[in-house]
Design goal:
This protein has 269 residues and is α/β, with parallel strands linked by helices. The protein is 48% helix and 11% strand. Helix 4 packs across helix 6 and helix 6 crosses helix 9 (219-231). The protein starts with 25 loop residues before the first helix and ends with a helix. The chain binds iron/sulfur cluster. Iron/sulfur cluster is lined by residues 150-151, 154, 156-158, 167-171, 174, 176-177. Residues 150-151, 154, 156-158, 167-171, 174, 176-177 line the site of iron/sulfur cluster.
Amino acid sequence: MAEEGFHYSPLPGKTYSLFDRGSSTDGYYDLIQQLADECLKKYPDKETLLGELRRASARKHMLRRAREGLGDPDMVFLLGRISPALSEYTPFVKQHLEDLSILRFRDRRLWTSEEQYHLYMLEIELVNRINREEFMKCERKIAFLPHCLKDFKHGCKSSMSDIDYVCRGCSNACFLNRVSTLLRQYGIDAYIWMGTDLKKLKGLSHSGRRIGGLGIACVPELVMGMRESLHLGLPTVGVPLSANRCARWMGDFYENSVSLERIVQLVSP
Ligand code: SF4
């Protein structure tokens, strides 16, 4: 269900988009929850399933074969279960990778394979299930938002605060403003991610108040950020951008969004 009074525009991404045929990403979130439930029937322990997902996504060279039913049985099971359903949301990965091989870019995130996207999508859902309770108990909660959610038609008035930049609310049409305002209603401090070293948060955590993190980023970037935060001992949850449309992927910035309903689900007491 869309947040009251709010309508999304369906957005195509460079490689993925969580919009299905309508102007909503609800179908994606229903599906990923259903797939997580199915995989947990085979691996009832969430940490074990998480380990399998990470092991599989690190073996990129074996994933294509596993998707065809060959090789490592755990990888065959996982991809057999999730890839046919999730491929609707990753329609342009193949073409993107073909274009990259001509341009020879070295940025590893850009080389994310379609199977890795699917494993990362499930990893985000699973990490949210594992960490939500701990995140909610944290005395201070911080969100990092990508600057590609800004209103680019407007001269952004964001400015530096204690940890990173914060939105100053100069544009009502700005999606980043909308997300920051929503998060404030749930007691979460929203920052615009401008490259803060996450180790700084660990230092703040030691000052007495436990800090929890909420990340918003494109699928591969979010997975890596969540892994790093968890490695630093920060309870972390995350919501993927609805598509990947920033300059890194598209050569320029285009409007983007994230599911406000999914954020509310995740941060509601
Ligand atoms: S509303 Fe906030 S993030 Fe958006 S352009 Fe203005 S200051 Fe920047």
